[in-house]
Amino acid sequence: MTAAVGAYLGLFLAAFLAATVLPAQSETALVVLILTGDYPVVALVTVASVGNILGSVVNWSLGRGIARFRTRRWFPVSAKSLDAAGRWYGRYGKWSLLASWLPVIGDPITVAAGILRVPLATFLVLVSVAKVGRYAVLALATGAWS
User: Fold this and answer.
1) CA 127, CA 101: separation in Å to the nearest integer?
2) Which residues contact 6 (CB under 8 A, 6 or more apart)?
3) Do the Cβ atoms of 124 and 53 come closer than 8 Å?
4) CA-to-CA distance for 9 and 72, rounded, in angstroms?
């Protein structure tokens, strides 16, 4: 495996895991790779975005498939987080998915979207705008796109 493939794969995995209910962070990996100057910024933002969006789809699927277990102790999102996400969703509807990039509440919002049966196409459009937007802003903040 080449260094480039390893870098892209590592970024993808970090972004994917960061979007699931597992604790992970992808922003640092993206910024470090941008600052090396060894990789095209558009490619890095794309890889991070795709990984993060797919991780959110896992959450949506989780909400669709195992919502009946949400009161169980092992359910991966706490009742408190899910209630907060539900209130956020109740207030803003599908547009709350634009906040899916936010720490703490973003992942539960994507699970709540699955529980509430948000259509996958709507989910993908709104989550994609949020996730790509976050990584693009991060790239801008590093001075990569000036």
Assistant:
1) 8
2) none
3) yes
4) 34
**CB 27: neighbour CB atoms within 10 A?**
16
Q: What is the CB neighbour count within 10 angstroms for residue 112? A: 29
62-88 b/e (C-beta count within 10 Å ≥ 16 → b): bbbeebeebeeeebbbeeebbebbbeb
- pLDDT over 90 at 54, yes or no: yes
Task: State how far the Cα of 43 lies from the Cα of 140, in Å rounded to an integer.
Answer: 14
145: left (phi over 0), alpha (psi -120 to 50) or beta: beta
The tens digit of pLDDT for each residue in 29-51 reads 999 999 999 999 999 999 999 99
Length of the chain: 146
